[in-house]
UniProtKB/TrEMBL annotation:
Biased composition (Basic residues): 1-14
GO molecular function: DNA binding; DNA strand exchange activity
GO BP of this protein: DNA integration
Protein name: DNA invertase
Keyword line: DNA integration, DNA invertase, DNA recombination, DNA-binding
Pfam annotation, one family: Resolvase
Annotated active site: 24
Length: 307
């Protein structure tokens, strides 16, 4: 992404100011927020319509996924970005991991300044205290209910009432979507590089080698949700074409190499052995030269960029 020239008279970091304007319904307009964001120096503004009670915000997730180091995400107020303090901290953590910043025009939160970082730390401490207090209140409530002979939990769910079950299902779906979005930066780029050339089983094994616990079915379901929310192209769900054994190994090695270009040939060979992959000749021990041959083939076929 293009960078704006650095202004030596400004304390702002070099990079773009990206505005995020959200309203809850299609009937509401973002114009008022956009005016404030443009006045604050935002040349790019991303708009989103979504309930404040939901973390499923594809436009916001796309910003966080594609933002560059040095860029700053700007909102008019904190409630336009996050539904809770924990959600806010999750988003800022993702931005920080990308080397990006966050700023709220109406609140003392600006991660480019010491004062803003201090305010953020205070918010984090408040969130931790809130979680501890909620846990204590929940335990006390359960204990009191049991002392009175009442069962803890939602009586509507226990009685299988349709309205209560529908609310529970909606809450579970929202929580599922929030979990996927919070971890997407770890696994989605690998899925994008390997699908649909590779099977879900192959990709899940590569992810497990990177310490991510995915089964093929859970991974396919997660990608299906991501696609349904407009956060990824539906081509990821296409059926993998049948491939000769050596072509399958080529795409597998290309996927491992592209997900971590710093790996040596020996390290890739070790990964293939841990995955219990057979060599092109059917052996169990991989030589670096065999890995190099597959990488060279992947480059000739266009699967990897030639150096």
């Amino acid at each position: 992404m293009a960078k704006t020239p650095h202004n030596h008279s400004s304390r702002r970091p070099q990079g773009r100011q990206i505005g995020y304007a959200r309203v809850s319904t299609d009937e509401q307009a973002t114009e008022a927020q956009e005016m404030e964001l443009r006045s604050a120096g935002c040349e790019t503004i991303v708009r989103e319509h979504g309930s404040g009670a939901s973390r499923a915000r594809p436009a916001l997730a796309k910003i966080v996924r594609e933002i560059d180091a040095g860029d700053t995400l700007v909102v008019v107020r904190l409630d336009r970005l996050a539904r809770s303090v924990s959600h806010l901290l999750d988003v800022i953590e993702d931005l920080t991991a990308k080397g990006a910043h966050f700023r709220s025009l109406s609140d003392p939160i600006d991660t480019t300044t010491p004062q803003g970082m201090f305010s953020l730390q205070v918010l984090g401490a408040v969130a931790q205290l809130e979680r501890a207090l909620n846990s204590e209140r929940t335990k006390a409530g359960i204990k009191a209910a049991r002392a009175k002979g009442r069962m803890p939990g939602n009586p509507g769910v226990r009685e299988r009432r349709p309205d209560a079950l529908a609310k529970m299902t909606a809450a579970q779906k929202a929580a599922y979507g929030a979990r996927l979005q919070s971890s997407a930066n770890q696994w989605l780029p690998i899925v994008r590089r390997m699908r649909p050339d590779h099977t879900w089983d192959d990709i899940s094994r590569v992810l497990r080698q990177r310490g991510l616990d995915w089964t093929p079915e859970r991974l396919r379901r997660a990608v299906k949700w991501i696609v349904s929310e407009g956060m990824a192209d539906k081509s990821l769900l296409r059926k993998s074409p049948p491939r000769p054994a050596e072509d399958r190994l080529m795409t597998l090695v290309a996927g491992i190499h592209s997900s971590n270009p710093e790996l040596t040939l020996r390290e890739i060979a070790n990964q293939l052995e841990r995955l219990h992959e057979r060599t092109p000749r059917g052996g169990t021990k991989w030589a670096p030269s065999s890995v190099k041959n597959l990488i060279d083939r992947a480059k000739r076929s266009g699967l990897l960029e030639a150096a």
